Amino acid sequence: MDLELRHLRCLVAIVDEGTFTDAAIALGVSQAAVSRTLAALERTLGVRLLRRTSRQVTPTATGLRVVAHARRVLAEAADLVQEATSGHSTLRVGYAWSALGRHTSAFQRRWTTAHPATDLRLVRLNSATAGLAEGACDLAVVRRDLDDRRFDTAIVGLERRMAAVSTDDALATGDDPVRLADLASGTLLVDRRTGTTTPELWPPGSRPATEDTHDVDDWLTVIAGGRCIGMTAESTAHQYPRPGVAYLPVLDAEPIAVRLAWWRDDPHPRTQSAVELLTELYRTA
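Above: the chain sequence. Below: its structure as tokens.
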């Protein structure tokens, strides 16, 4: 016999109510049905879960562990039902590194005012689709094109490219504007899964050496130590100010397109609202 949620509900009801009679009342079934369901669960698991006397019912040591696990399973099942039947009452927006930079707080505040019935949640997941392919979000903020026909995207704004260097670096202490050529002699620290910068930004023959990273905190720590330099969207500078790291605009680097991405065959009902609000925020800035 397969384990079913009704078995777990029955066990938890007996423990919570204290007797088979009260459990039957709570579940809206007969006392005989409660006894049969518990017996079926014990047969399925091959263990005794409850001690029964004429006065009380108490869990065995194994029963205590099973009851704790049953509560977690039932809670997860309830969350699953809520998620599937809620009518998209939550909008999860994923991002890999820096959300929406200086627009993040404004986006959250204005969303709450304009769409009070749809809870906005920002989710950080360092993957190529910022959690979209993994099912962790409904919309994803990405800063490079997704070559995947499962997703649609819309450009909502542009961001400058910024060099990230140690505050001890000559570039940080000098007065001259920073250009790509000024960075070519350093070692570029890149996240190849989600990053916006590759050596191909530089002309052939003058491209910097590279090292890989997979996390923004590691990226900042290495740059602050002076071993590497970075190139990133200006949103990172707003989201992650860090002692020891200076962010400098790169005058001759093309801006970065900020995109929202979503599942083509199952868009969230509020997708267009998010696109319009973010487009407005970037445009008016």
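The chain has a mean pLDDT of 91.
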